[in-house]
Write a structure and sequence with these properties.
Length: about 220
């Protein structure tokens, strides 16, 4: 069961607007008018209106009768989401270290290989490609934990926070550090080291939290 929502299709209106928000091309409080977005994206106002409603439901956009649509301010919300992710995904990694099968560990290694290759290949879309593989990696750990109730809890958190984490803030060195943390997670899970697996996941997510907080304050 996959519970993390994958990166949006950047060819559709919803995905393109969401990418502008998560990449910080649009800032908290910026107005989002249907007409200007429709002109910019070369579409009619109808898909823009539908995209803004969906983004509002997901917490990315604030809709008001007086102000119209604006990019949501989610500093505090993000901080709380990351704190919960640190706790719950750390616990998830610990469970995975006890329950993962040989095939599931092999799958994690295969995902890790693609993650590292994407980083070294670089290119203009490297952060988007790495972000998608990162979501696949976290999905695989959730599956290996074999706890359906926990999957649902983590899903309610990561559906927003991981989509926001598109790696737009990461330098090449930070992407490589993330890959190193993934490898430490795999090693801990393969060797059934629950304490190390929990700690490695918490450090991994704490690093993303730090980058978001630094960027939001700057």
């Amino acid at each position: 069961m996959t519970v993390l929502i994958p990166e949006p299709d950047l060819t559709d209106v919803y995905g393109r607007i969401l990418h502008k928000i998560t990449s910080r091309d649009l800032s908290a409080g910026d107005r989002l008018t249907e007409t200007s977005l429709a002109d910019e994206l070369n579409v009619s106002r109808t898909p823009v209106r539908e995209a803004l409603r969906r983004l509002s439901a997901e917490g990315y956009v604030d809709l008001s009768k007086n102000k119209g649509a604006t990019v949501a301010t989610f500093d505090e919300d993000l901080d709380q989401l990351f704190e919960l992710r640190i706790l719950l995904e750390g616990f998830t990694a610990g469970l995975a270290s006890q329950a993962a099968t040989v095939d599931e560990v092999r799958n994690l290694k295969e995902i890790q290989s693609r993650f590292e290759s994407a980083i070294e290949e670089q290119g203009d879309d490297v952060r988007l490609r790495v972000s998608r593989i990162n979501i696949e990696f976290h999905n695989a750990i959730l599956t290996a934990a074999k706890n359906k109730r926990l999957e649902n809890f983590v899903s309610s958190l990561t559906s927003a926070s991981l989509l926001r984490s598109t790696f737009e803030l990461y330098s090449l060195d930070q992407l490589r550090r993330s890959a190193s943390q993934h490898q430490q997670l795999i090693d801990a899970i393969e060797h059934r080291d629950r304490s190390l697996a929990e700690m490695a996941m918490r450090v991994h997510i704490s690093g993303a939290k730090y980058l978001f907080n630094r960027d939001l304050i700057a």
